[in-house]
Design a protein that fits this description.
By secondary structure, the chain is mostly helical. It is 53% helix and 9% strand. The strands form four sheets. It has a three-stranded antiparallel sheet with strand order 1-5-4. The chain has a two-stranded antiparallel ribbon with strand order 2-3. A hairpin with a 2-residue loop joins strand 2 and strand 3. The longest helix is centred in the middle third of the chain and has 18 residues. It is globular and about 55 Å long. The protein starts with 7 loop residues before the first helix and ends with a helix. GO terms for molecular function: endonuclease activity. It comes from Pigmentiphaga aceris. This is HNH endonuclease.
Length: 353
């Protein structure tokens, strides 16, 4: 059921509490950052641009925790001679239980990616274990800050479920890039500040990429498979490709979770020119047609590369991104040095597909 959108005052109060949560909260592990990242992602993917509450299950959240921490459960090592290789500690004491559970699963599994892991019978036990940890720890303590409990984000609903309070999904959607950036910066700082990691980290110039970016191996697979699927031509200008670059159609700076259906191949020139902009209506129409025509092939590419796949998610993310852009009068990239206003044309394309 829809509800009125939060007022400007309510949105400001939400941002103030998010700021207080980071400033006054007790972050003994990285779980709270992961929980905020997850809630923001799910608000974008499942919420709406109204003030309605949003129900979520602990298992939905646990799925995202496994995706977030999957790569963290393998050793991190820099190329420096003064560093050691090891799994980064993400708790003030012993290793975080979620990481330990994933590491144990990976040790006895043939799965190299979460997508492969989900096909194995033992994955259900891993998911249940992570859901239990999520329920007992970050869901219980995220909203504790400044010496009090302020349940401004969610409340416990039916067993195994939470309910994002009215207006919260809207605010997470509206301020998604800010929330994600705050979480990532504090997550990196938390790991760097843990003395147990100092021998492993060294200067740690690529720590953020290790924690949050798609791996080079996955990018190589995606680029190779997209070349077979779409042919050697730039998605945007249509000209022949020599050295193709993999581009996020909805910019990564706007939505920071990789989904296979969001990738296209582009010239370096087009990719750099488009940068962090949404694409114009002619590109959006082509991309939406591609979602329909090649959905199963993109699923296969995502599985091979170990990247989440979902045509519906990619579509909802695009609708959210263009909706936000239209509300603030943003402009979309058409070609180098040429932009157009994000307006009803873009909205209508997304509604009709």
């Amino acid at each position: 059921m829809s509800a009125p959108t939060p007022s400007a005052e309510t949105q400001l109060a939400f941002l103030t509490k998010i700021q207080r949560l980071f400033a006054e909260g007790d972050f003994t592990a990285t779980y709270k950052f992961a929980l905020l990242v997850t809630l923001a992602d799910l608000a974008v993917e499942l919420g709406a641009d109204d003030g309605a509450a949003l129900p979520l299950s602990n298992r939905q959240i646990a799925e995202r925790f496994i995706q977030l921490y999957w790569r963290h459960a393998v050793p991190y090592g820099t190329s420096g001679n003064d560093t050691a290789s090891g799994v980064l500690i993400q708790n003030a004491g012993t290793q975080a239980a979620v990481l330990t559970a994933i590491a144990k699963f990976r040790a006895v599994s043939r799965a190299n990616t979460v997508q492969q892991a989900r096909t194995e019978p033992a994955y259900r036990a891993l998911l249940s274990k992570v859901a239990t940890v999520v329920s007992a720890q970050p869901l219980n303590y995220l909203q504790n800050f400044g010496g009090i409990t302020d349940p401004f984000l969610y409340e416990r609903a039916a067993p195994g479920h939470i309910l994002l309070k009215p207006g919260v999904a809207y605010c997470l959607r509206r301020f998604y890039p800010l929330v994600q950036q705050l979480c990532r910066v504090h997550w990196v700082d938390h790991i760097k500040g843990n003395r147990q990691n100092h021998e492993i980290l060294g200067d740690a110039g690529d720590l953020e990429d290790f924690l949050f970016s798609i791996s080079r191996q996955s990018l190589t697979i995606i680029g190779s498979e997209l070349l077979k699927l779409d042919g050697p031509k730039c998605f945007y200008c249509g000209l022949s490709l020599q050295d193709a670059e993999v581009d996020h159609f909805v910019p990564f700076s706007l939505y920071t979770r990789d989904v296979a259906h969001n990738f296209v191949l582009a010239h370096a020139t087009c990719n750099r020119s488009k940068s962090d902009s949404l694409a114009g209506s002619q590109h959006l129409e082509k991309w939406l047609e591609r979602l329909t025509s090649y959905s199963s092939q993109l699923d296969e590419i995502g599985f091979a590369a170990g990247v989440p796949t979902s045509r519906a998610t990619a579509h909802r993310v695009a609708a959210w991104g263009y909706g936000n852009a239209q509300s603030v009068g943003a402009r979309a990239w058409v070609k180098p040095l040429h932009y157009e206003l994000v307006d009803d044309r873009h909205r209508d394309l997304l509604v009709s597909r």
